[in-house]
Amino acid sequence: MTLTVADLTRRAMTEFEEKLRQQHEDSMHRELEALLTTTNKAEAEISRKDFDGFKKLFHRFLQVKGPSVDWAKISRPPEELIQPYDRIKARGLPDNIAVSLNKLAVVKLNGGLGTSMGCKGPKSLISVRNENTFLDLTVKQIEHLNKTFNADVPLVLMNSFNTDEDTKKILQKYKHHQVKIHTFNQSRYPRINKESLLPIAKSMGTSGENAEAWYPPGHGDIYASFQNSGLLDKLIAEGKEYIFVSNIDNLGATVDLFILNHLMSQPADKRCEFIMEVTDKTRADVKGGTLIQYEDRLRLLEIAQVPKAHVDEFKSVTKFKIFNTNNLWISLPAIKRLQEKNSMDLEIIVNPKTLDGGLNVIQLETAVGAAIKSFNNAMGVNVPRSRFLPVKTSSDLLLVMSNLYTLDAGSLTMSKKREFPTTPHVKLGSSFTKVQEFLARFENIPDMLELDHLTVSGDVTFGKNVSLKVVCFV
C-alpha cells in the first residue's frame, strides 16, 4: 500500500500528539508524587486516593477531541422513559411504606460555600426561614419522616474540604434528634495551569500561597468518594438499597414516598437503578441540563456539551421541554458494581477560572446526573415545579422567607392563599446581593401573595407592613 504525503503527515501529527500527551501525563504524575511528600503519612494516604481519581480524569481530558455528542444522533426520549409524576402518584402507597423507607438514605450535597451570597463558611449554615438554616430544615424533614413512620432514614452529608470542619462543629446540636447523620468528604483536586497543564500547588496545604490551588471536583465525584470513604459498603451492610441525592440549597427536594414506592415495587430483574427528577422548562431554565435519547440510552445533555451552532436549539423550550432538577434516586448496589468495574462514564466539564492574581487555570469536573447512562432501567420522572426550589441568590431568599410559603416539619409548601400556582419572578439589584445587606433593607418581609413580578435596582429599602403586587423599583 502506497502512503500519500497527506497520510504520512497525518500519521506524524498523531504520533507527535500522542508523545505530547504522554509527556503531559508523566509530568503530572511526577508533580503529584512530589506534592504527596509535603504532608504526613495519614493525609498522604487519603490524598493518594483523590489523586488516583484525578489522574483518570486528566488522562481522559488529554484524549478528548471535539464535542462529546454527535448532534445528529440526539433524539427525544421515548414517552415511557419520562413518566409523569401524577401517574406514579396515582398508584397510591402500600400500608407498609415504612419497610421501603428503611431501605433509603438521604444524601445532601454540602460542598459549597456561601460566598456568592456574601457569607463566610458553608452555605448550608445560612438562615433561610424562621432562623432555620438549610441544614436545620433538612434534619427536621428527615426526623419527621422517622417519627411518623417509625423508620430509620439516615442523613448523609457530602462535604468538601471547604465545608467539612465547620459542618462537623454544628452537627453536635442534632445529637438528640431522631436521625443518624453521617459525613464523608468529596475529593480534593489540584487546579492546573492552563498553559503548562501542571498543578499550581506548591504543597498539600490549603492556606497562604496554596489558598486557591485546590477545588472540589463537582458533584459527579460522589460515586468515587462515597466508595473511598467506606460509607457505601456500610449502608449496604445496613440494608439500605437506594439513596436520594439532592443539593442542600434546594428546599423543594424532600423525600417523596410515591417515587420511593415506584422504585421498590419493581420486579427484581427490572429494578430501576436511577431516577432523575425533571420538571418543565421555563425561560429562566434555558441553560439547565436536559434528558435525551442517545445511542439507545437515556443521557443527560448539559449546555457545555452542545456544539456552538446548536446552543439556541438547546435553549428552546419547544424542543427540549424539561430540565434536570438534580434530585436523583440511585441504587447503592448498582453504584458499587459500576465503581468496582470502573465503568462509570461521566463526561468531563472543563471549567476555566482566572485567579485573583490573573493566573488562568482549569478545573476538571463531573456532574452526578451524567452517570444516568451507566445505570440499568434508568428513567426520568416529570415532577411538579414545587420540587425545585433552589436558593442561589437573595432574590430566591426573599421568596422562601415570605408568606408565599408555609413551613411545616422542615418542609416549605406554597400557601393555599396564593391564587396562582407559579412563584413570582423576583429580581433584586446589587445592593441586595449580600445576605446582611439584604436583611438590613427590609423592616419585615413584605406580603407577596398577589405578586407576579418584582424588579428592584438602586438604593431601595422596605418599611413595615408592605404589600407587593406587580412592582418595579428603580
Automatic annotation (TrEMBL):
GO molecular function: UTP:glucose-1-phosphate uridylyltransferase activity
Organism encoding this protein: Astatotilapia calliptera (Eastern happy)
Keyword annotations from UniProtKB, A to Z: Nucleotidyltransferase, Transferase
Name by which UniProt lists this protein: UTP--glucose-1-phosphate uridylyltransferase
GO biological process: glycogen biosynthetic process; UDP-alpha-D-glucose metabolic process
Catalytic activity: alpha-D-glucose 1-phosphate + UTP + H(+) = UDP-alpha-D-glucose + diphosphate
Function: UTP--glucose-1-phosphate uridylyltransferase catalyzing the conversion of glucose-1-phosphate into UDP-glucose, a crucial precursor for the production of glycogen.
UniProt subunit comment: Homooctamer.
A Pfam short name: UDPGP
Metabolic or biological pathway: Glycan biosynthesis; glycogen biosynthesis
UniProt similarity note: Belongs to the UDPGP type 1 family.
Top-rank lineage group of the source organism: Eukaryota
Residues holding substrate: 219
Top EC class of this enzyme: transferase
Enzyme Commission number(s): 2.7.7.9
Binding site for UTP: 123, 186, 218, 249, 392
